[in-house]
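Tutorial handout. Part one gives the primary structure; part two gives the three-dimensional structure as tokens.
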Amino acid sequence: MAENSFQQPFPTGEPNDAFAQYFSGQSYNAPVVDGGVPVNNITFEPACRNNWHVHHGENGGGDQVLICTDGSGWYQAEGSDPISLTPGTAVRVPAGTKHWHGAKADSWFSHLAFITPGENVRNEWLEPVTDEVYGALPKNGEAA
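Part two.
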């Protein structure tokens, strides 16, 4: 793993090779809790982000919860303004919401991620976040 300056409270993990095709840049995956609601710590190198995607589920399932543990990143739902993620920020992504998340251009970023259990829970990977969309994100100010 490349060097980073943040001291996250969870392991960085191994390169996220199983999902590399759905990321622009390098990410890492560290399982934190297994069982009925697995929790993973996902770490992103600067400017790394995942593709647009949708979590599906029924009967309460398929919501994704992201909790930033270190660094600084972005979450964006389709048609909405991006949300700056810093340590302690939590986001609930309702099932069926097209979205993406990843590191800011100049920062490492890590978050805990889990999906609420239910019926027919699955993930649908979509197109990459374009450099144009990513490059248009705020560079400074409160939203950055």
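Part three, for discussion. The radius of gyration is 14 Å. DSSP finds one helix and 13 strands in the chain.
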